[in-house]
Amino acid sequence: MQNVAADLAQMLGVERVLWEQEHLLTYGFDGTAALYGEAGCVALPKTTEEVSQVVRYAAKYRIPVVTRGSGTGLSGGSVPVPGFIVLCLVQMDRVLELDPKNLTIHVESGVVTQKVAELADDAGPLYPPDPGSMPKILQQLQQIFRKWPLEGLFEPLGFSRAPSPVDRLVDLISEEICWRS
Predict the structure, then answer these.
(1) pLDDT for 139-179, tens place per residue?
(2) Do 69 and 7 share a structural domain?
(3) Alpha-carbon Rg of the chain, whole angstroms?
(4) Which of 60, 65, 76, 167 holds its CA 20 to 30 A away from the CA of 124?
């Protein structure tokens, strides 16, 4: 893989190609705990043209490629096998167009979901919760469920306020986020 890394470094620059063992370890897994693979090298393109160059190079030499973002996937889709080029798209993180009137946003592959949710919030619409953005989920659950009209529903049972499972859910999510931090 040394020759491949050297060729990719000529294309992208040495600072955007990783091939040393200590760097490759972090690109061998995603959010799937049971899966691990060892990348041959990691390419970090910044433009669509650079992605095309890497893919053309890989096709020419019949080197498998696996794409990757931040590694938060839960399906093992970005876990490489030996000899693969990991095409990591995190540096392609520009917002190309935001059109609030038509409720559309055009972003590059490396834009994280949290950024999309923040832009949507600023423009007005609610961006649905996403498991990859846990703090956003917590905030949205709190906004949605705290407004749920349960007042008076449980008074005949002797409760002044419902013993809400939603409150417990929000508490559990808060505890999980704090525990992982």
Answers:
(1) 555 555 555 554 554 445 444 444 444 444 544 444 444 44
(2) yes
(3) 22
(4) 167
